[in-house]
Amino acid sequence: MRFSLRIFLGYFLLLGAVAAYVIGVVRDEIKPAMRRSAEEVLLDTANLLAEMVQPDMAAGRLDGSRLAVAMARLARQPLSAEVWGVPHRQSQLRIYITDNHGVVLLDSAGLATGKDYSQWRDVALTLRGEYGARTTLADAANPLSTVMYVAAPIREGSRIIGVLTVSRPNLAMQPHIERSEGKLARLIGMVLLAALLLGALFSWWLSRGITKLTRFADAVSAGQLVPIPHFTANRELETLARALGRMRSELDGKAYVEQYVHDLTHELKSPLAGIRAAAEILHDELAPEDRARFLRHVESEVGRLQQIIDYLLQLASLETGTAAKQFVRLDLAGLLRTQLAALAPQLGSRRIETILPDGECLLQGDAFLLGQALRNVLQNAIDFSRMDGCIQLHLHRVDHLLTLRIANDGEPIPDFALPQLFQRFFSLPRAGGKKGCGLGLALTRAILQLHGGDIAIANAPPGVCVAIRLPLASR
């Protein structure tokens, strides 16, 4: 399982557990909070009604009091109201009044008149001067059928002459509780969904960063010269990428030096041995023509050494990314014509056939480096073609790429040599048995890769074809 997926699953489980806990806590608090609020309203209502009925209670005319008349009218009067989407068709408020002994004198429901309520907590506590309230099940088989009773004393001076109790079934609040719980569940669901989306986005972002680092490490392992990835919003990954870049530079530098020293030592053996042998012979008495021949050999080997050193220095600067570059907009067709003109004296009886597109073939690049890459490939095409042969150049645009094909009609490349053509110091003999330094194609590939392009060589009867691809310049 991927690391980012593990993080997301862990985050999902943690978030789900927290969400379940929060929903449970809030849901457990909704019902008590609503009941506390309803209790406060009932308390205020009971005290207000107790003050209103006090004169009639003290005068002994409770049955004909305004409260009794209002209670009877309220019981008969239908209601037509909607409170926060919950319809109300009749009042669920019940009021009863007891004397100072707890006997019910008046009941809005007409159920308890004359009964002794002195043992009920609301009446008993209020008669003792305390706060009286109770919650009782209306139906023992239904745990939701609780009714809340809140009482207030009816006083005459400092003496309690009766108790007024206001009650309301808690079931009347159930629609509001369910409505609040539904809203809470939807809100928690939306928050949970948003958090999951953010978690998924974070996991994708983290996975993307790790993937970039993995690709960078794989490219380094494959020996590719790729830039160090950058992470603008992640300092830790940015630091890790820089550390990997420094490690690559140090390891590459060590391996690079070791490989170059090995290759250079191996390649310099032959010309140095020739120079040393010629120098020893030159110490002897020689005929003028022999002396001249050995001097020419020394000059040739020194030139070859100089070419090897120059190519190695340039190739090293390209492969380590330290080469000075001046990228500008270039016309590849114009650059190709320039190199063909420079190589024209070497053509002899060979012919050049070119197919170039109309208009400019623009790309971003360094004119000197690209010119050198083209010159190397064209020089090889000339050296390995027949003396009266034909070299074909075809430059065309395909999508966002410029493709240059250079084909000659010389001898095909041996199968064993095809995979080794771009290796340093690998070279095939040219006409007359002369060999190059074996660095031209390696240098050419490094230059093209520096410009985001590539090169491929294959046998294409009757000869060999080189394909160069470079990206077009953006408009």
UniProtKB/TrEMBL annotation:
The keyword ATP-binding does not apply. One of its GO terms (molecular function) is protein histidine kinase activity. Pfam families: HATPase_c (PF02518), HisKA (PF00512). It is a multi-pass membrane protein. It is found in: Cell membrane. Its main location: membrane. The chain crosses the membrane at residues 6-26, 184-206. Its EC number is 2.7.13.3. It is an enzyme of class 2 (transferase). It catalyses: ATP + protein L-histidine = ADP + protein N-phospho-L-histidine. InterPro entries: HAMP_dom, HATPase_C_sf, HATPase_dom, His_kinase_dom, HisK_dim/P_dom, HisK_dim/P_sf, Sensor-like_sf, Sig_transdc_His_kin-like_C. Residues 263-474 form the Histidine kinase domain. Residues 204-256 form the HAMP domain. The keyword Phosphoprotein applies. This is histidine kinase. It comes from Vogesella amnigena. The gene is creC.
